[in-house]
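Hypothesis: this fold can be encoded by more than one sequence.
Test: take the structure tokens below, design a sequence, compare later.
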């Protein structure tokens, strides 16, 4: 009886357990495999998202998709500009040649083709900075938003290498814009600009181009150049170093004072665009009188007269 109970009890129990384990072995991995696959998919998606985020964010975490334009701050921040103050390209009169050259240069750059840094210099109020902003808007519309405009203030030029470092690895293309660029006194920050334009080991990133406006062709005050000449051991070399800054802009666009006909064309263009109605003879008389009181004719003076006229006639200006 002891032998019989050993035969019936001992072998059966292990078999039943082994069978249960076998059944569990075939069914168990299925629910475990699904979470593993889901985890792998989630990890892959996170890696893709991280790569995309790295391509569209700067070092300070600003997403470059937030806006088409930014302002650079020297502590390393890019601040998005939701709405750029700009004039429509079609409203810029009397600068057709400069407009066409800058647009063509910007289009080549946006397509990844070779293009030059540009210096827009000359008379005040003739639309230099307006042209840069309008050209960016026009070309960026064709480029699908891949062309960004970054403004750097004159006093922050020394931080320009840091900005270049942030932009170098981005998939976007950038116009770095400095308005009213010039150097006075003992200011040595121009050396940072020279290094970025055509110097240094790394050089200017392929996805960055520099556009600057200035009232001076050589960016430096005459007394600054004369001071260098008088104090240097070799005056010729000192002056050559200062003047060479402008030479590093491959594209020079000169803006000169407009004629009376060009000034009136600007005024008429603004009035037509914003729906300001006034007899043409009266418009011409008032526009010329306004320019006389200002002592100059320019696009800026034409715009100021348009604002005065619109306010007087109760017309809202929306750009």
């Amino acid at each position: 009886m002891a032998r019989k109970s050993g035969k019936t009890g001992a072998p059966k129990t292990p078999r039943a357990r082994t069978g249960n384990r076998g059944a569990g072995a075939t069914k168990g991995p299925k629910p475990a495999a699904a979470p593993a696959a889901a985890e792998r998919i989630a990890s892959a998606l996170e890696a893709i998202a991280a790569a995309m985020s790295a391509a569209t964010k700067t070092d300070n975490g600003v997403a470059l998709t937030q806006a088409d334009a930014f302002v650079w701050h020297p502590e390393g921040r890019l601040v998005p500009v939701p709405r750029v103050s700009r004039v429509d390209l079609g409203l810029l009169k009397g600068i057709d040649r400069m407009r066409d050259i800058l647009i063509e240069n910007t289009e080549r750059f946006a397509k990844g083709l070779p293009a030059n840094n540009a210096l827009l210099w000359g008379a005040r109020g003739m639309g230099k900075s307006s042209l840069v902003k309008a050209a960016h808007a026009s070309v960026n519309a064709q480029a699908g938003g891949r062309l960004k405009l970054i403004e750097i203030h004159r006093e922050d030029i020394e931080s320009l290498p840091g900005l270049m470092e942030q932009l170098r690895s981005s998939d976007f293309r950038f116009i770095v814009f400095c308005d009213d660029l010039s150097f006075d006194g003992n200011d040595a920050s121009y050396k940072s600009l020279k290094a970025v334009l055509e110097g240094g080991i790394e050089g200017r990133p392929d996805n960055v181009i520099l556009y600057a406006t200035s009232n001076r062709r050589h960016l430096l005050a005459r007394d600054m150049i004369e001071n260098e000449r008088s104090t240097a051991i070799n005056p010729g070399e000192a002056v050559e170093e200062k003047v060479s800054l402008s030479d590093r802009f491959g594209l020079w666009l000169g803006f000169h004072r407009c004629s009376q006909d060009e000034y009136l064309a600007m005024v008429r263009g603004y009035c037509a665009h914003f729906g300001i109605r006034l007899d043409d003879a009266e418009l011409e008389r008032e526009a010329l009188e306004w320019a006389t009181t200002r002592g100059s004719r320019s696009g800026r003076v034409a715009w100021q007269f348009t604002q005065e006229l619109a306010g007087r006639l109760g017309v809202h200006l929306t750009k």
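The CA atoms of residues 95 and 240 lie 31 Å apart. The radius of gyration is 33 Å.
Hypothesis status: open.
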